[in-house]
Structure formats: structure tokens, C-alpha cells
Design brief:
The protein is mainly β and 118 residues long. Helices cover 0% and strands 56% of the residues. Strand 4 and strand 5 form a beta hairpin. The radius of gyration is 14 Å and the shape is elongated.
């Protein structure tokens, strides 16, 4: 099994910054896709940012504020979040899709809480 361990969440004031990390137990040099999703209470899980087939996508309400990236040497995926707003409060989940012998297999992190409040 592949394990994804998230860290970096917490409480931050509006306008502040956080960097979420997603460490994987496998090499991520070559992956099919990776992304970050979030789910607020009473709402559906939504895409924050992802990279598929070399194309980076951001939700409209995070463009210019969030950046998705990765460090292959550390087998880690990141989400840099700047200028945070109360509306960003949610549980954030990372997702990585690996290409295996029989196709693509996706894995989810355990989720990390991000709370933006004064």
C-alpha cells in the first residue's frame, strides 16, 4: 500500500499563510496526476488545485493565492497558501495517482484542518 501523510494545517489569521505538505511512501518522479481538494462543513469536496498531463488547474477562488508544487527528492507534494480568507476554512486532502502495471491507482491523504479566523 501507498501511504500519504499530510501536515502543515492549523489556525491562522486572515491574510496569513500556510504551507501544506503531503509526504508519500513511494517515488513520485513519475506520476499520472496529483492534486489538493478541500471540504467545508455541509459542503461537497471541491478541487483546489491539481496537475494532470502537465496542465496545472486552480479553482477560481484561489488563483493568484495558492500554488501547487512538488519535491521529487523528498517524495513530497506541497500547497502554498497565501492571503488566506475565512472562506478557505476546510479540511484539505491531497491525492496522488500512480501509474501501475494494470492502470492508474489513486491514494488519499488523511486530511488536515485549516482554519482561518481572527
Amino acid at each position: 500500500q501507498v501511504q500519504l501523510v499530510e501536515s502543515g494545517g492549523g489556525l491562522v489569521q486572515p491574510g496569513g499563510s500556510l504551507r501544506l505538505s503531503c509526504a508519500t511512501s513511494r517515488n513520485i518522479f513519475s506520476i499520472y496526476a496529483m492534486g489538493w481538494y478541500r471540504q467545508a462543513p455541509g459542503k461537497q469536496r471541491e478541487l483546489v488545485a491539481n496537475i494532470i498531463s502537465g496542465t496545472t488547474n486552480y479553482a477560481d477562488n484561489v488563483k493568484g493565492r495558492f500554488t501547487i508544487s512538488r519535491d521529487n527528492a523528498k517524495n513530497t507534494i506541497y500547497l502554498q497558501m497565501n492571503s488566506l480568507k475565512p472562506e478557505d476554512t476546510a479540511v484539505y486532502y491531497c491525492n496522488v495517482v500512480f501509474t501501475d502495471t494494470f492502470g492508474e491507482i489513486g491514494y488519499w491523504g488523511q486530511g488536515t484542518q485549516v482554519t482561518v479566523s481572527s
